[in-house]
Amino acid sequence: MKKFFSVLALAIVVASCNKKEENKTTTTETDTVATEIKTDRIVSLNGAVTETLAALDVAGNIVGRDVTSTFPADLKATDLGHVRSITAESILALQPSVVFGTTKDVNPNLNEQLKKANIPLVLIDQEYSIDGSKKLITEVATKLKKDNYQPLLDNISNKMANVKAFDKKPKVLFIYARGAGNLMVAGAGTPLHSMIELAGAENAAAALTDFKPLTPEALLTTNPDVILMFDKGLQSLGGVDGLLKIEGIATTNAGKNKKVVTMDGQYLSGFGPRVGDAVVELHNKLQ
């Protein structure tokens, strides 16, 4: 967790922008005034945005990232932690020329602090869909004044064309776990709901909205054919054997058949440039 905020580093930030070498620039909107910004020192506060920046060949310019920015694995940037805990002070310490994030992640207080410090903030309205991923890529590329993004869009389209309908849609229940004492299921409106449907399956918890606590009653009602989890989530339970000890799991079709599918969290739910690959992989694992 990071300490709370301060904007006293403004003078340092402004001074750092005055480099002798030529830097790439882009344009963002601050209120109604277009401001020219440099992209030589980027802080990214969203995993999908970070992946997009890397795919557009500016990974070397990223100096700070949030905890969801796990790809590419060799990214050399300071981990600032969870976006809801990141302070203006920790960001300013990195002397950024611009901060990228999404409207759902960056809280108003942080937004205001960065604005007072004259740090350009580019916020993307992220949507958990194929079109939403393409829109995110296009918007980030536009801000960077990059024109090499079309292959990223084409790759998503090509991968999605390979996803064929199941003869019978499997019922999939996504369980979020941080140990046996913290278990949630993903209902409608979550990125996991979208991924399950994109992969051609049915979300067993579609009647719910957002994330809800896992209960034996919910398992009895949903009776999933497959349980889907993040890799680290299943590890926190001690693997499949630990999962089957959770009340109600063993009596489901998924539990009886030990049909448990895991994927990397950011890969599965990030909806960045790799979304098409993730959908294809999930589809194949559900067969």
From TrEMBL:
Domain Fe/B12 periplasmic-binding as annotated: residue spans: 41-287
InterPro entries: ABC_Transporter_SBP, ABC_transptr_periplasmic_BD
Species annotation: Paenimyroides ummariense
Signal peptide residues on this chain, from the entry's feature table: none
One Pfam family matching this protein: Peripla_BP_2
PROSITE patterns registered for this protein in UniProt: FE_B12_PBP, PROKAR_LIPOPROTEIN
Protein's name in the database: Iron complex transport system substrate-binding protein
